[in-house]
Amino acid sequence: MLLRIVRMTFQPDQIDEFTSLFDSVSKKIRNFDGCSYLKLMRDHNHHNIFVTYSKWESQTHLDEYRNSELFKNTWVKTKALFADKPAAFSLEEFSGEIES
Hints:
A hairpin with a 6-residue loop joins strand 2 and strand 3. 35% of the residues lie in helices and 30% in strands. Helix 1 (15-30) runs antiparallel to helix 3. It has a 4-stranded antiparallel beta sheet. By secondary structure, the protein is α+β, with helices and mostly antiparallel strands. It has one domain: 2-Layer Sandwich (Alpha-Beta Plaits), CATH 3.30.70.100. The chain contains 3 helices and 4 strands; from the N terminus they run βαββααβ.
């Protein structure tokens, strides 16, 4: 399981445009092969900062999504609304012990 977190800062006057875009594609993303979860969250103190949290079966599934027309078309529209560079992280579950 791979967790993908993307933090995005939008121009304040573009928030409605982004949320409308997200609403129009979120079901397609959730149904993309390998995606088992997608959630959009908003920063409590900075209302123009949003975070997507998604779960993917593998890196291969995430890469297939990132190479898809769905992602490419959505990302072009999304990044035009940014006020700052996004930050993205891929995480995997770690169950080992950390030595100090």
